[in-house]
Design brief:
The chain has 283 residues and is α/β, with parallel strands linked by helices. The chain has helices at residues 11-22, 38-42, 51-54, 68-76, 99-109, 123-127, 139-144, 146-152, 163-191, 196-204, 209-219, 230-246, 252-269, 276-282; strands at residues 4-7, 27-30, 46-47, 60-63, 90-93, 113-116, 119-120, 131-136, 153-159. β5, α5 (99-109) and β6 (113-116) form a beta-alpha-beta unit.
């Protein structure tokens, strides 16, 4: 079993730490906000006071943080983990921070091996070991940690460093744009007097079948649990816009989706699941 440190104990980070501990790995945890580690520590994880202390003796360091500034602070701020990670350890960066941030981390942590491994899925996916993990980096490093990643779900090797970070942004951007489009279209069919369930039945008969089947409870407002906050979804759009600009490209559909998300956030829905944008648009 590998000695693992998890830095960042939001909903996903805490779930990942708990899953790895249950599987028998020695787990050390650290979080910027005190108290979020209480349950994990009670269950057997070791609490660290600083990121640097947390990575002492770690064979694998997992980061699951909010955004690039949080990653920068955790790795390279005061008492940061970066300088304290052993040269033969591996950093598995599972946050959604984009390829530019990953490239910076790789340069500054050398010779430490780094995998960018953002995930598709939410807390229930962690608990059932059914995450999809999009992994970029050296293939040999990926192979070395395949059994560890398999505890959390299906790990897909997608290419060189930054590839996983790119594909996570693409997936999230596509999901958000699609939700906004569906929200606007349901608003139209509401006004036309059509039953929402009937509209979804017709969409499910076409190329959107798997998407509608997966999202139907949220689209109908039956499932209001929050697995991915709207504010975080909007943060991810901001990152993908920055990355696209570096490539001299524009994502005009997603820019429109971002504007509608901003409207929903302005009325207080930022902490709701990103599917809340559909209900907002229908209203």
């Amino acid at each position: 079993m590998s000695a693992i440190t998890v830095l960042g104990l939001g909903a996903m980070g805490a779930a990942i730490a708990a899953k790895l501990r249950v599987e028998g790995h020695p787990v050390t945890v650290w979080n910027r906000t005190p108290g979020r580690d209480d349950e994990l520590v009670s269950a057997g994880a070791r609490r660290a006071e600083t990121p640097a202390e947390a990575v002492e003796d770690a064979e694998v360091v997992i980061t699951m943080l909010t955004d690039p500034p949080a990653l920068e602070q955790t790795l390279f701020g005061p008492d940061g983990a970066g300088p304290a990670i052993a040269p033969d350890a591996t950093l598995i960066e599972m946050s959604t921070v984009g390829p530019t941030a990953i490239g910076t981390v790789i340069d500054r942590l050398a010779p430490v091996d780094v995998l960018d491994a953002p995930v598709l899925g939410s807390v229930p996916s962690v608990e059932t070991g059914s995450l999809v993990i999009l992994v970029g980096g050296d293939r040999a490093v990926f192979d070395r940690h395949g059994s560890l990643l398999a505890v959390l779900g299906t790990a897909m090797y997608v290419g060189t460093s930054g590839s996983g970070a790119w594909l996570k942004l693409v997936s999230n951007a596509a999901s958000i744009a699609t939700l906004v489009a569906l929200g606007e279209l349901l608003a139209v069919t509401d006004r036309a007097g059509l039953e929402a369930a009937t509209v979804l039945d017709s969409l499910e008969a076409g190329p959107l079948a798997s998407l509608i089947a997966r999202w139907r409870p949220r689209l109908l407002g039956e499932d209001t649990s929050s697995n991915f906050r709207l504010a975080l979804a909007r943060k991810d759009l901001a990152i993908v816009f920055d990355e696209a600009e570096r490539l001299r490209a524009r994502l005009t559909v997603d820019e429109t989706a971002a504007a509608r998300c901003d409207e929903a956030i302005e009325v207080g829905l930022g902490d709701e699941d990103f599917g809340a944008v559909v209900g907002f648009l229908r209203r």
